[in-house]
Amino acid sequence: MSTTTPPPLIVRTTGGPYERGRQYGTAARERVLLSLENYARVYETFAGLRWDAATALAETFLPVIEDFNPAHPEEMRGIADGAGVSFEDVLALNLRTEILFSGKARRIAEGAAGAEPPRTPGECTAFCDLRGPEPIVGQNWDWIPFSHDTVVVLECAPSAGPRWVSVVEAGLLAKFGMNSAGVTVLTNALVTSLDVGAPGVPYHLLLRALLESESVDAAEEVLRSAHRSSSANYLLVGDGRGVNVEARPGSAGELNRQPVERGGCLVHANHFSGGRDAAFAGGATDHGPRVMPDTLFRYDRAVALAELMPQPSVAGWHEVLSDHANFPDALCCHPDEKDAELEQGTTVASAVIEPERRTMHLVLGHPCAVPRVTHDYREFFAGA
Known about the structure:
alpha+beta, 6-stranded antiparallel sheet
């Protein structure tokens, strides 16, 4: 891992799925290779899987993925060819959540017979603020420090459908972002005892499908219709309204929908808001507070700071996301050198988004130290 944040890599792709993938893989080749190198260590450390076992597990998802959207594996093949790696390698990267958190869930289930599994760094703190004249939304994405060197701003102009932009790890199809149809997608990783790696639509491919949606209603329909493999939180904003959807593995019955009303404000971290040790139908348990223990503090702190904000603003939310209370496991997370390398957390990216202005105020690195850059996507989106 480098000691300083590398220059931003912005990749703009156009055309059909394979073409876009090849453009992406070619432009981000060095970062894709670094993603593969580091996730080989991550999978073995947290899930107990060597890379060949991880790719074999990923391949069991391929029939579901092809049925969900055949363009997604086609694009992954383009990424692989552009980066000079195998399709199975790129597939395993895009199943990072299914491989990682299913391994964590299995280890927790076996915990009575063994040592506590390594602690995963906290992932994301997201918000949707509808108290002002226009929505202000955003999130921090926290992960392992090597991700400073693998992050990519991916701007996509497909041959059909909305244009979109997403902040991703090199080789992945999507993470959080916004599109030309006015849909903004924010997200938090969740993990329950149901996350056992059973084949279903993977988390990051669902994020991509949400970014390809023409409306918030259409995005919700994607979540209801897909048989999901992983737990996750999806915060969807568009047309001046928001909806937060907590999802467990499964289909429509495993969704908890919470509208964000005009005049309201919602914060979400890496645990279910239905309960801090929530038990669900069938005896499922929320493992978020155990796997990512700083989630409870980050949630409480962001809510408290939001309540103190006299008027919602980009600058105000930037300050919230830069907060250092409970340092180093703060909203603006910094590595704790006392932890093992792969157990350290860091804020990799921080975004405050004005959906109606099609504007993303983005920091790649720590928002406390790195200046935010305003990306105005009105012209790019107008070409959709």
